[in-house]
Amino acid sequence: MTALDMDRIREALSEDFAVIDYTESTGSTNTDLMQAGKVADGTVLLANEQVAGKGRLGRQWVSPAGSQLIFSVLILPDSLDHLGTLPLAAGLAVTDSVEGAVLKWPNDVHIDGKKLCGILAEAGPVGEAFKSAPKTEVSKAEINKAEINKAEINKAEINKAEINKAEINKAEINKAEINKAEINKAEVSKAEIAPKTQSANPPSARVVVGMGINVTLTREELPIEAATSLALEGLETDRTQLAVTVLKNLRRRITQWEQQDPQLLADYRKVCSSIGQEVRLEAPAGDVIGTVEGVADDGRINVGGEYYSAGDVIHLRPADN
Q1: Are 21 and 43 in contact (CB under 8 A)?
Q2: Which of 29, 38, 258, 319 is most solvent-facing, going by the fewest CB within 10 Å?
Q3: CB neighbours (10 Å) of residue 9?
Q4: CA proximity to 171, closest of 196, 138, 201, 140
């Protein structure tokens, strides 16, 4: 077992996530972030071991310490109108990262029909969670040496201004005329950026996306026979590099989800192995057997011309029909 290199992970993802935390062992990273007090939008929690992991439909699972990549990400979306497609976006982040991986609807990551990864998205009250300042505007809240480049202060004439060593406290730039640069009420005193100032709309909910990817699990350690691991598939098992790759792809896919970019579902359909398959959908109202004709823009599955938003999909072999 090789430990996660948290310094490397934090450095590689410094522009993608607000906070990246680590715990050696926990019950559930999803539960930890759902119950956390003052926590920033874009917080990641990684764990070496999870003893009460949660899956879809209330399922629980555990695994040997260090054998999976386990993490959860907290986001504060402005709207939950398209929450149903967030798990699909998370699944895409894994197929983006693992060669040969596909998605069985809605977000079970498979390789050759065997499950590699579990994903669960949950929503709850915002509580004390807050929006943090985008790192592209104030990196680490340090405004040193008057680097106002990239702040796009168009046509700003800073005549007769003395900005020695970037002391821009409380947005007072002595003798400076900043035409068209509306820095109203900007308190950047010693670069302390208060929370909840960066979003025009208050967040609608606290949403946590968690996943566990089987990395070095042996055949005997797998929770079910129809599962697999990266090691069993002969793929790279460096958990640190996997964390960086998956989380970068997840950040990109979450951004698409927030912007409702149609490319997200277009990409999903390309890797959804359920489309075109004969399936049994174990839906809340009863089992449905038919051909998957597609996936709607809101994430619902089309089986035999009818759309369903929940259920387990079982891919059928010809003899099962």
Answers
A1: yes
A2: 319
A3: 22
A4: 138
- 240-252 pLDDT, tens digit per residue, is 999 999 999 999 9
Give the per-residue pLDDT at 142. Answer: 43
Residue 130 near residue 224, CB atoms below 8 Å: no
Which residue blocks in the chain are alpha helix, DSSP H?
6-12, 29-35, 86-97, 239-259, 262-271
Write the Ramachandran bin of 127: left for phi over 0, alpha for psi from -120 to 50, otherwise beta: left
Provide the greatest CA pair distance for the chain.
84
42 three-class SS: coil
Q: Which residue type, as a one-letter code, is found at position 207?
A: V
Choose among 112, 105, 73, 116: nearest CA to 213: 116
Facing residues of 228 across strands? none
Q: Tokens for 188, please give them.
A: 């950047």
Reduced 3-state DSSP string for 221-276: HCCCCCECCCCCCCCCCCHHHHHHHHHHHHHHHHHHHHHCCHHHHHHHHHHECCCC
pLDDT in tens, 68-97: 999 999 999 999 999 999 999 999 999 999
d(CA 107, CA 313): 11
User: What is the separation, in whole angstroms, between the first and last Cα of the chain?
Assistant: 43
pTM confidence score: 0.78
Please give the structure tokens belonging to residue 1: 């077992």
What are the structure tokens assigned to 128, written together?
């004390």
